[in-house]
Write a structure and sequence with these properties.
Strand order of the largest sheet: 3-2-4-1-5-6-7-8
CATH topology of the largest domain: Rossmann fold
Strand content: 5-15%
Helix content: 40-55%
Number of domains: 2
Number of strands: 8
CATH superfamily of the largest domain: P-loop containing nucleotide triphosphate hydrolases
Low-confidence stretches: 1-7
Largest sheet: 8 strands, mixed
Length: 317
C-alpha cells in the first residue's frame, strides 16, 4: 500500500464530494443527450462530443474518445445507450493508463541514500502552488519524513512569507533570502541546509512568471544546475501545479511549462470548486505526464494522491 493508506472510506467520500460538480454537470448533459434514444448513433455521438469538449476534456482527447466509440459501434453493430456509461468509463480509464499511482516519494529508497529527495515545484501564481507545497510537507512529515522547504520564488515578497507561514504551520524549516534574491542561490542554500540536517525530502518553490518564456527557462535551468553541484541527480521530480478550474488555460500552462523545463509530475488543484474536472483526462492524455495529486478541498488532507481507479470510480459512481 505504501506510506499512506488512501483507500479509506473517508478518503473515498472526500473524492466523491470533490468531483460532485463535474459529475453532476457531465451526466446531467449526457442524460439529456440520450433521452428517447435506444442506440448509440451519429446524433448521440455528436452530442457526446459537444459534452466532452464543454467539460474541458479537450478537443484532441474528445476526438480520440469518439473515434474509439465509433470503432466499437462498427465492430459490435449495435450498442445501446444504456451501455454508454460503461463504455465511457472503459475508454477514459484507458486514456489514463500511463498515469502512475501513489505519492511522489513512493518507491524511493531512503535507506540507501545519503542525500535528500528533491522536488522542484513550478506553476503560475494563483494556482495553489504554495498551498500544495504546504500540504505535501504536512503529508510527508506525517509519514515520518524530515522535510525542508526552500523559498526560491523571490519575485514576490508574498510568496516568501506565504511559504514561511505554511512551514511554521506544518512545523518544518524554511530556507529564505527574501524578495529579490537569486532563486538559484536560495535553492543551493536549501539543499546545503537539508544535507546538513540529514533531511529526507526537500521541496523548492519557484517563480511562476510566464510573460517571458526564455527568462523562465533560463531561471529554471540555472536552479537545476546549481542544485546538481550538491546532488547530481536533483531534482528528482519537477511537479507542475495547475488550477483545474481554469479548464483549457490549465492545458495551455502545461504546454508552456513542459516546453520550459522537464516536468515529470502534475498536481491539479481546486477540483472541488469546478465542473471542469474533465481537464484531468485531457491533460493526462495529451502530455503523458503522470497526474500525481489532485486538490479537492481546503483541509491538509484534501490533497490526495491521484489513484486512477478511484478517480474513474468516483466520476461514474
Amino acid at each position: 500500500m505504501g506510506i499512506f493508506s488512501f483507500f479509506s472510506k473517508e478518503k473515498k467520500q472526500d473524492l466523491d464530494k470533490g468531483l460532485e460538480k463535474t459529475k453532476n454537470s457531465f451526466f446531467g448533459k449526457l442524460s439529456k443527450a440520450i433521452i428517447g434514444k435506444s442506440k448509440v448513433d451519429d446524433e448521440v455521438l455528436d452530442n457526446l462530443e459537444e459534452i466532452l469538449v464543454t467539460s474541458d476534456v479537450g478537443v484532441e482527447t474528445t476526438l480520440r474518445i469518439i473515434e474509439r466509440i465509433q470503432n466499437r459501434v462498427a465492430r459490435d453493430k449495435f450498442l445501446g445507450t444504456s451501455e454508454l456509461n460503461q463504455i465511457l468509463r472503459e475508454e477514459i480509464s484507458a486514456l489514463l493508463g500511463d498515469t502512475s499511482n501513489g505519492s511522489l516519494i513512493e518507491g524511493f529508497d531512503f535507506e540507501k541514500r545519503n542525500t535528500p529527495y528533491v522536488i522542484m515545484v513550478v506553476g503560475v501564481n494563483g494556482v495553489g502552488k504554495t498551498t500544495t507545497i504546504g500540504k505535501l510537507a504536512y503529508q510527508f512529515k506525517a509519514a515520518g519524513k524530515n522535510v525542508v522547504l526552500g523559498a526560491a520564488d523571490t519575485f514576490r515578497a508574498a510568496a516568501v512569507s506565504q511559504l514561511e507561514i505554511w512551514a511554521e504551520r506544518v512545523g518544518v524549516p524554511c530556507i529564505t533570502q527574501g524578495m529579490g534574491a537569486d532563486p538559484a542561490s536560495v535553492a543551493f542554500d536549501t539543499l546545503k541546509s537539508a544535507i546538513s540536517r540529514q533531511a529526507d525530502v526537500v521541496i523548492i518553490d519557484t517563480a511562476g512568471r510566464l510573460h517571458n518564456k526564455i527568462g523562465l527557462m533560463n531561471e529554471l535551468s540555472k536552479i537545476r544546475k546549481v542544485m546538481q553541484k550538491l546532488i547530481p541527480d536533483a531534482p528528482h521530480e519537477v511537479l507542475l501545479v495547475l488550477d483545474a478550474s481554469t479548464g483549457q488555460n490549465a492545458i495551455e500552462q502545461a504546454k508552456q511549462f513542459t516546453a520550459a523545463t522537464e516536468v515529470n509530475a502534475l498536481a491539479l488543484t481546486k477540483l472541488d470548486g469546478t465542473a471542469k474536472g474533465g481537464v484531468v483526462i485531457g491533460i493526462s492524455d495529451q502530455f503523458r505526464i503522470p497526474v500525481k495529486y489532485i486538490g479537492i478541498g481546503e483541509k491538509m488532507t484534501d490533497l490526495q494522491p491521484f489513484i486512477k481507479e478511484e478517480f474513474v470510480d468516483s466520476l461514474f459512481s
